[in-house]
Amino acid sequence: MNSLEIEVDEARAQWVNITKDSLVVELTDGRTIISPLAWYPRLLHSTNKERLNFEIIGDGSIIHWEDVDEDLSVSGIVLGRRSGESQESFERWLKERETQALS
Question: Is residue 36 a contact partner of residue 22, using CB atoms and an 8 Å limit?
């Protein structure tokens, strides 16, 4: 196993913030990872209230947003991975949100 694999495997979140255009994750080892919010469309299209309703789970390895049904792995964030959701799935989710808002 090379050192990058070890570093990523050990990456754990201790604090999360979402700004207007960024996802900011502070790791337990002192690093701060900042990713463009556009990489995570569900978060980009969520409300501030929904963004604040997150939970750090799996001993800090996963960040979960219940209201938008989004789970991001901390190792994926560290590696710079964007959301893996298909455009079709995202569009279906967005349409469901719009329908619920009109109800």
Answer: yes
List residues bridging with 63 in a β-sheet.
Answer: 56, 72
Beta strand 54-57 pairing with 32-36? unpaired
Query: Do residues 27 and 12 make contact, with C-beta atoms less than 8 angstroms apart?
Result: yes
Cα–chain center distance at 10? 18
Give per-residue pLDDT as tens, 68-100.
999 999 999 999 999 999 999 999 999 999 988
Query: What pTM value is reported for the model?
Result: 0.87
Contact 35, 23 (CB under 8 A): yes
H/E stretch holding 63 reads strand 62-65
Q: Of 41, 50, 44, 87, give the one whose Cα is nearest residue 68.
A: 50
